[in-house]
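Researcher: Quick test of sequence recovery. Tokens follow.
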């Protein structure tokens, strides 16, 4: 079909090819990342293994093969995190054609709106991007630490190690995704929604800083390393990376142990979610305690608030999140604080000792009374795992 130069890039992810675009960024795979011919050959072989074949399609050919316009295909590629490509770059394979059809079929068969289909594509792309970087760095660091290689040597050796890792990592990814999806379905089933579809209440004393318009009652917590900025100035790159990775690892273990979820990490800070106020309080205490007892980590400040939140794209939004984030800055090193409303939810639980602190002016919330949270009677979270 002839090209129509007037085709708009905002048309839906369906329809015939009719657009011409002119973008000029080099294919990153074709750039000279490795000097030796052996390394270049290893890159090419690994690329073909991962993509199913040698790259043999340009963007227009790929869109045509998927029965899409280049504008529609480009929207999917952007959602998947692909770079801008010039007209003549040979970048795609038949696997890319199939991927385009998977996303577009969700829309064409009226299973999802275009917006939802692209959102699902972005979720896969953004999380898998972080995942593969993490995996590569873990493999490189292992070779440096245990095989005496330099960083450059380890990255060249990785080209020969990865082919044997592809199948195990694919199986682990598939298994983990199915497990996580199952866990998410179980959480949905346990959220106590009534037959009329309304969500669970916050309880007699529940925090409602999020307002009744926000859909879910959840706990939001932040753990923040003390003196991270000054420490980062004194450390070299590898030592700082080890510190951050150790902090993230310990936090992820504790949060998972307590039935919570890591929402995101930002350098020296971890944000987590809990399904119950009691669970969030236990996680908060365990985080503070175990990080304090780790000789390789500085102490942490932890704040936790129970309230209503808005979940979107794997993140959480709303005043509950903002209050928890601002309370952590008011916490003493090694301490845990909650707000007064969250404390009222926990007040009759002898596992927690709640000590009101002087009111503080918190930006956006006015006067807020922090309440110190410490361990009371009964087993600690980490004891229950033994």
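Model:
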């Amino acid at each position: 079909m002839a090209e129509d130069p007037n085709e708009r890039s905002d048309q839906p992810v369906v329809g015939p090819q009719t657009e011409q675009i002119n973008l000029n960024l080099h294919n990153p795979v074709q750039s000279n990342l490795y000097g030796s011919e052996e390394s270049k050959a290893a890159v090419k072989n690994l690329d073909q293994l991962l993509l199913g074949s040698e790259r043999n399609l340009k963007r227009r050919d790929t869109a045509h093969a998927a029965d899409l316009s280049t504008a529609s295909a480009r929207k999917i590629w952007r959602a998947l995190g692909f770079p801008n490509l010039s007209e003549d770059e040979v970048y795609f394979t038949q696997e890319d054609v199939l991927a385009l059809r998977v996303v577009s079929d969700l829309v064409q068969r009226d299973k999802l709106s275009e917006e939802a289909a692209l959102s699902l594509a972005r979720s896969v792309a953004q999380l898998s991007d972080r995942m593969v970087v993490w995996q590569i760095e873990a493999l490189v660091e292992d070779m440096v630490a245990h095989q005496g290689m330099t960083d450059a040597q380890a990255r060249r050796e990785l080209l020969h190690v990865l082919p044997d890792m592809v199948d195990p990592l694919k199986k682990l990814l598939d298994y983990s995704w199915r497990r996580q999806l199952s866990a998410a379905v179980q959480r949905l089933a346990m959220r106590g929604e009534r037959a009329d579809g309304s969500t669970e209440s916050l309880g007699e004393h529940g925090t409602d800083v999020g307002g009744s318009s926000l859909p879910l009652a959840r706990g939001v917590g932040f753990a923040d390393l003390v003196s991270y900025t000054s420490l980062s100035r004194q450390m070299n790159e590898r030592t700082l990376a080890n510190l951050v990775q150790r902090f993230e690892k310990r936090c992820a273990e504790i949060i998972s142990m307590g039935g919570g979820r890591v929402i995101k990490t930002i350098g020296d800070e971890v944000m987590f979610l809990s399904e119950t106020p009691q669970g969030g309080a236990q996680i908060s205490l365990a985080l503070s305690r175990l990080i304090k007892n780790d000789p390789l980590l500085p102490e942490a400040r932890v704040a936790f608030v129970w309230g209503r939140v808005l979940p979107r794209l794997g993140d959480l939004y709303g005043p509950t999140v903002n209050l928890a984030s601002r309370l952590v800055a008011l916490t003493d090193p090694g301490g845990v604080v909650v707000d007064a409303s969250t404390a009222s939810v926990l007040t009759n639980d002898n596992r927690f000792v709640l000590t009101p602190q002087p009111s503080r002016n918190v930006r956006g919330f006015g006067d807020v009374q922090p309440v110190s949270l410490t361990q009371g009677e009964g087993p600690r979270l980490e004891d229950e795992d033994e």
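Confidence is low (pLDDT under 50) at residues 1-9, 15-33, 193-207.
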